[in-house]
Write a structure and sequence with these properties.
The protein has 263 residues and is of the alpha+beta class. It has 2 domains: 115 residues, Cytochrome C3 (Alpha-Beta Complex), CATH 3.90.10; 109 residues, Cytochrome C3 (Alpha-Beta Complex), CATH 3.90.10. Helix content is 27%, strand content 8%. It has a two-stranded antiparallel ribbon with strand order 1-2. A two-stranded antiparallel ribbon has the order 3-4. Strands 5-6 form a two-stranded antiparallel ribbon.
Length: 263
């Protein structure tokens, strides 16, 4: 029985490693990029490339996925030019009037666009096109801390060192909320004897996500131990895997979560 259990654990580890490796063959500049294509072709435009690395340096995940209302799954939100023009989704910020760091945020869409405005469309509708971006990843990431085998930006360290200041409130969209008292860090017991237990930090996650991004859609219960999940599920994009290995740091950085020494 013990040999069978060890074999199954080993098989799970190999399968998870294969799934992670297959998904992680990607350049740092493309990590977390999302292609939005639901209505682009109907409008005669190329699909939109959305770069998380740029936007997450400016705004929290909670602001976009809760207050503004972007779904956590690509193409699950019906983003249209009409919705943007009315101030929803991308248009919540990209309306040509809002400021960030004293700089006007360009408008995302317009009706009866002039030839000059049509040229602006390619700033977002850039998939398959050779578009000169305003922000270059290499120069953007140069002064930010890196980590892991892929040398991805370590957003936690960047925020802790004051190198980025993500905004969590958008006037006219967000509601005033009382500051959250984050629960203390706690340990999650690993199912395998050879892997250290997980140290989960609510403080780190609350800073970016609030409570609403995770509960109740991703983790239905807030009581420790009620929701059972495995590395196979996580590697397949469920639970922690909905963000990790897609936008947050990848799953092959095991020691970032499995940080409690084996007892």
């Amino acid at each position: 029985m013990r040999l069978l259990k060890a074999f199954l654990i080993g098989l799970m580890f190999v399968l998870c490693a294969d799934m992670v490796a297959a998904r992680r063959m990607i350049k740092p500049s493309e990590y977390g990029s999302v292609t939005i294509r639901s209505f682009s072709h109907q409008a005669g435009l190329a699909p939109v490339r959305f770069d998380h690395w740029l936007h997450r340096s400016l705004y929290t995940c909670r602001l976009c996925h809760v207050d503004i209302g972007f779904a956590m799954e690509a193409n699950a939100t019906r983003i249209t030019a009409d919705a943007n023009i009315k101030g929803f989704y991308c248009g919540s910020c990209h309306d040509g009037t809002r400021l960030h760091d004293k700089k006007i945020i360009f408008a995302s869409c317009s009706v009866n666009a002039t030839p000059e405005e049509r040229m602006r469309c390619s700033r977002c509708h850039s998939v398959g096109k050779n578009v000169q971006k305003e922000y270059n990843y290499a120069s953007f990431a140069e002064k930010l801390p890196k980590g892991g085998m892929e040398e991805l930006i370590d957003w936690e360290k960047a925020e802790a060192r004051g190198l980025i200041h993500p905004v969590d409130f958008l006037i006219g969209v967000s509601m005033q909320r009382q500051p959250l008292n984050a629960q203390k860090d706690f340990s999650i017991t690993s199912r395998s004897t050879w892997m250290p237990d997980i140290i989960f930090s609510h403080k780190k996650h609350v800073m970016w996500n609030g409570c609403e991004v995770c509960h109740p859609d991703i983790f239905p219960s807030v009581k420790k131990g009620v929701v059972k999940y495995s590395m196979l599920q996580i590697a397949n994009g469920q639970y922690c895997g909905l963000c990790h290995d897609r936008v947050a740091f990848p799953l092959n950085e095991c020691d970032k979560c499995h940080a409690n020494p084996v007892q």
